[in-house]
Amino acid sequence: MRMVVAAIALTALLGGCANVRLIESDVSSYGQWPAQRQPGVFAFERLPSQQARAEQQARIEQAALPALEQAGFRPAALGEPASVTVQVGLSEMRHERAPWDDPLWHNSLYFGRGGFRGFGAGVGLGWSMPSPYYVLDAAVLIRDARTQQVLYETRARHDGRWHDETVWRALFEAALKDFPMPAISPRRVAVEVPR
Q: What is the pLDDT of residues 135-159, one digit of tens each?
């Protein structure tokens, strides 16, 4: 009976894990946010290059909106003055092959974050088709609407197989995770998103 209960519990646990994707990003945040200031009302601000790509920029702003609201900001209603302006940007670089798709990646001397890792070799009989690999950078810049002073700057960088809007939202969430504290920069931030 115990074995059956354990098997059911393990199946439920593994099933729950399969419904979540972990998006890890390298985040750097800097700021001079006044200690007593509340986030308040914001308005998006666009650079001329972002105005030229208005539809794409609107999608990026929509992806950033939940993270801004989670940090305590509220979008300005029509005609309402904003206390801060927010610029958001997202860049994406596509590579045809991920580093781990390189057949020599595992079969040579290599250096990792901790230094020399050794020599590895092996024989594989499988065949795999390389798939695209993406590097995404999300950036948020918050200014005082009256003085134009930069109050907070943060960015998140993620690399991996996916580049959909779910990843965009996770990047902005990671970038604003420690708002208004600048925190350790750079640092690794993980965000769980549903599959």
A: 899 999 999 999 999 999 999 999 8
Q: What is the pLDDT of residue 160?
A: 80
Spatial distance between the Cα atoms of 142 and 30, rounded to a whole number of angstroms: 11
Residue with tokens 């109050």: 151
pLDDT of 128 reads: 58
- Spans of all domains in the chain: 21-95+135-194
21-95+135-194 has which fold? Double Stranded RNA Binding Domain (3.30.160)
Average pLDDT, the chain: 80
For the chain, how are helix, strand and coil distributed in percent, rounded to 5? Answer: 25, 35, 35
Q: Using the predicted structure, report yes or no on whether residue 20 has a pLDDT greater than 50.
A: yes
Please give the Cα distance from 42 to 175 (Å, whole number): 17
The two structure tokens encoding residue 106: 């595992």
pTM over 0.85: no
Among 172, 136, 175, smallest CA distance to 28 is for: 175
Dump strand ranges (E) for 2-144: 20-31, 40-44, 73-75, 84-95, 110-112, 115-118, 133-144
